[in-house]
Amino acid sequence: MLELRKQLKQTLGISIILVTHDLVVVEEMVEWVIVMCCGRVVESADVFSLFARPGYPSLIPKSSSTPHAAHGY
Fold it and tell me: From the CB of residue 69, how many other CB atoms can be counted at a distance below 10 Å?
């Protein structure tokens, strides 16, 4: 399903709003991220900047097993 969304985005030039808690999906699927907590925006940035310098505590890697740590972000 995620690959289909990627193909649609590329071939049709559409934007997709993706709501997920899965940071691997975020890293692979989006260009811009808005982080929300309790219905409020707590952070927004392009995906590379967000993983390079996360400001919100739940985005800070807890170990090297996190997806963005493996990619060097």
Answer: 13
* 7 lies in some domain: no
How far apart CA 48 and CA 31 sit, in angstroms, is 8
Total number of domains constituting the chain: 1
Assess if residue 13 is contained within a domain.
no
Looking at residue 62, its pLDDT comes to 55
Q: Which residues of 3-36 are buried (b: 16+ CB within 10 A; e: fewer)?
A: eeeeeeeeeeeeeeeeeeeebeebbebbeebebe
Does this model's pTM top 0.70?
no
